Structures are given as structure tokens and as C-alpha cells.
Amino acid sequence: MAYSDKVIDHYEHPRNVGALDKDDHAVGTGLVGAPACGDVMKLQIKVSAEGIIEDAKFKTFGCGSAIASSSLVTEWVKGKTLDEAASIKNTDIAHELALPPVKIHCSVLAEDAIKAAIADYKKKSG
Amino acid sequence: MQMTALGKTTRPSLPRAPGAPVYLDYQATTPCDPRVVEVMLPWFTEKFGNPHSRNHRYGWEAEEAVEKAREQVADIIGADAKEVIFTSGATESNNLALKGVAHFYREKKNHIVTVVTEHKCVLDTCRYLEQEGFSVTYLPVRSDGLIDLGELEAAITDKTVIVSVMAVNNEIGVIQPLAEIGAICRKKGAFFHTDCAQAVGKIPLDVNAMNIDLMSISGHKLYGPKGIGALYVRRRPRVRLVPLITGGGQERGMRSGTLATPLCVGFGEACAIAKAEMAAENERLLGLRNRLLGGLKQRLPEIYLNGDLESRIPGNLNISFAFVEGEGLMMGVKELAVSSGSACTSASLEPSYVLRALGVDVEMAHTSLRLGLGRFTTAEDIEFAIDHIADAVEHLRAMSPLWDMHLEGVDIKSIEWAEH
């Protein structure tokens, strides 16, 4: 199966790989997927006092499309409000990366990761 | 270069197209050996006769060529040429062996024994026969990939018509104990069929010493052309079968259709070369494989070999690179042509059923790569592969949340994952 140029670009030059301090109150962490299913994404966001996502980091275990999906969303969420970030749809991710039907679940997982990270941040900031 | 019994130089090199990846997928297919192609060529053009034409020289010379090829195929498995039926490949041979024998003896016997790690074409044919009313026992394998001979013996009943056990597994390269299996089948009165697609030319085979009644062979797995294979069918004691393809009665009525002379000739030559060079080639491949495994282990912690190392063909490794997903890894080793047991590489969402049958965890099955070495693999290829794979694994582990957890001492099995 051939990958799109954008998937290859994100795979070879992943944006924002890394970790933020999960104990920091300004950081929300989302961990989604399962090793048994072949993909796990960890997405972290750092939220400013004004409610803007000022930093995002990811780590992903998965295929090229899963890595690309998570790399892409770290770029997209930066600078957005929590509501704006929560409105990112898996279809937007799939469209941007030209994912084939068998890889749509990678984009679904990336959307879930954003929502999980936001939920974690909201829970911590209470 | 050293001379062989065939009077030709050994192991010609096969130049790679510029920019083409290093080929390490020899269990998927092999290139035609240039020596094979050379002997095939005249049979496409000036010697184009139908080997079944009895009336003129075109037919006679084609028939002679086909019969010589039949002898070459028979020779590598210790059979008589009369016992070799040409087919389109091992899938057809497996179908013919199982359906043909089951159908012929269906009035007396209705039970088949096979193994869970067989190739899909054996398993799917067994499923088909189950739908027709046959009962099938699927033997499990141990964690090393080999069957338990006691379980095999216990599974064979007086209703068992045929036992089908592959010689060499296509994913993990392990060699089943054929002679022992053959002895059990003979004692219990069941025919022994073995899918030898991955075995012929790789390990010594003797249909008589091993009590093999039917054997499937593939041309393109041993540096012959694609589109041809053979089924060995024992004559004494005679094995009978109902043909899948009826027509002009070629191949002793077991497989009608005009034989493809060039393919037969190439397949025969491939067998002759493989037989002449097997011992030396196996030694060379073993050296390369040991270097590959050793080199990877030296660079990478947390890698695991799937399947037994000792009872294994020299040209195969199947390794799980923990915490790195297989398809992601294949994308990272794009300078290599390899395959993975990861679910993502197949249409189904299940990882390799072969690795699962060994008891490999689903998580680990997702991280596996199959590395297949063969006749045109060089020491330089292996050094390149070690560096390329190790670099990619290190890169992907640095990106893997599971690797972080491993380093922090978190057992990933202790986490409640939301399976999707």
C-alpha cells in the first residue's frame, strides 16, 4: 500500500514528539488505543491561563498513518482554545492526510486523543 | 568462483535496479535464477511445440524437455518421475492433494488431520471440506512452532484419510519432524501429505525415507518461475485421487491441460541447481543469518525470536521488536523489502495467526518482522540491514509511549486499555 506524501512527511519528520510534565496542572494527558490493537497514542497539551493550548506533544506506537495523525493534531491544536481543539473531527484529519479506508481508525484515534487530553486537563484544573 | 556438478559457476549475482530496496523477503517469492531463465528461453520461441503432440518433432522435443524436467523435480525429493504431476503451483497442489484424496476415499473415510499454522490454502481447503461434511482436526503447535507427535498420533483414527503437515512454515521457517510424522501416518494407515513449498531446495527431502505419500512443491520459492508447481503422488502403495481439472487426461488423468513447457523446463533446472548447491548454500546462509540475528541483538534490547532456532531453515528469521509496531517499522526500513506479522499489513485486523498459535502475545505479534535470506543475499546486504533496522527501531522507540512505560518499569499488561 502506498502512503500519501503527507503521511510520509509526518512519519519521517514527526512534529512535537516528546512529553510534558503530566503532574503540571496546566498539562492534560490523553492515552488512547491499545497495544493489542496495534496502536497507542499519548497526546499532551499545555494550556495557558487564558485557556489557549500553547504547547502539544505526542508519542505514538502504531503504523505510519497513526504516527502521522497524531503528529498532525499536535500542529493543529496549538494556538487553539479548548473548544476549538475539541471540534477537530477525524474526517478532517483523514482528509488532510489522504488516509485510505483501512486507516480511518488512525484518525478516529487521534480525535479521541485530543478529547481525552482536554478531559484530563479539565478534570485536573477542576 | 567454484564449479558445480552442473558445470556452471555457482550463485550468479543479480544486480539490483537503481534505488531498489534490498530484498529480504525470500519466503514470499524468489527471483528466477539467471541460469534458469537461460534454459527456459528457447521453449518460448523456436521450440514452441505442444508436449502432448505425438505427430511431429515439435511435440516430441517438447515432451522430452518436460520429461527431463519431471525427472529433475523427482530427483530432488527422491521420487520416481512417474510420481510427479505438474500443477500451477503449491496452492493448486494442496487443493488437489486434499480435495482429491478426500473425495476419492469418501465412502470409507471422512476425517482429516492438519495443523493450525498451515498455509491459508491448506486451512481454507480444509474449511471447504468441512462444509462438505468432512471432519477436520486442527492440531495446535508448541511455543517453538512444532507439533507434538503424541498429539498427532492420538488424533489419527481409523476414519482418518489424510494427514497434512507442512514441512517448513512460511512465516517462522521452522521444520516439522517429517520422518517421524511419516512413520506415525504409515503405522496408523493414513496418507501423509506435506506442503513443501518452503522446503524443497532448502532441506534434504526423501519421500521414501520419510514415508511421504503426497507432496506439494512450488517453482517460484526455489528460484524457478512463477505459475508452476508439482504434486508428488505415491505409486506404491498407490494413492488415488479425484482430479480438480478434467479434460484431455494429461498428467495421468490427475491434471488435464497442456503443460507449459518453458515453465516445466525452468522448474526442473531450478530443482537441479538447488540440489547441487544446497549443502554449500545452506552453510553460507546460516553464516549470514547468524550475523543478522547477532548484529541486531548487539544493537537492540528487547527483541525476541519467534519459532525455534535450531529446527529452522537457514534463510528465515522472524523477530518481534517489542514496543514498535510492525507496519510502522516496515515504513521505517523502506530500504529493505521485508514483511510483517502486524495486523495493519493485512486486510483483516488480526495479527499473524501463526504467531498467535505459538502463544505469542497479540501485542508482540504486532511488532514482528519476517526477514528472509536467499541465494542473492550478500554479506553487505546483511550489514546494511542490521544498521537500517536498528536505526529505525531506535527512532520509533523514541517515539513510542510503550517504550517509555517499559523504561519507567510500568508493565503494559497492568494498564486497562480501551480496545477499539
From TrEMBL, chain A:
Any one GO molecular-function label of the UniProt entry: iron-sulfur cluster binding
GO cellular component, one term: cytoplasm
Family, similarity comment: Belongs to the NifU family.
NIF system FeS cluster assembly NifU N-terminal domain ranges (all copies): 2-125
Signal peptide location: none
Protein name: Iron-sulfur cluster assembly scaffold protein IscU
UniProt cross-references to CDD domains, sorted A to Z: IscU_like (cd06664)
UniProt record, GO biological process: iron-sulfur cluster assembly
Gene3D superfamilies: 3.90.1010.10
Cited InterPro entries: ISCU, NIF_FeS_clus_asmbl_NifU_N
Coiled-coil spans in chain: none
Functional note: A scaffold on which IscS assembles Fe-S clusters. It is likely that Fe-S cluster coordination is flexible as the role of this complex is to build and then hand off Fe-S clusters.
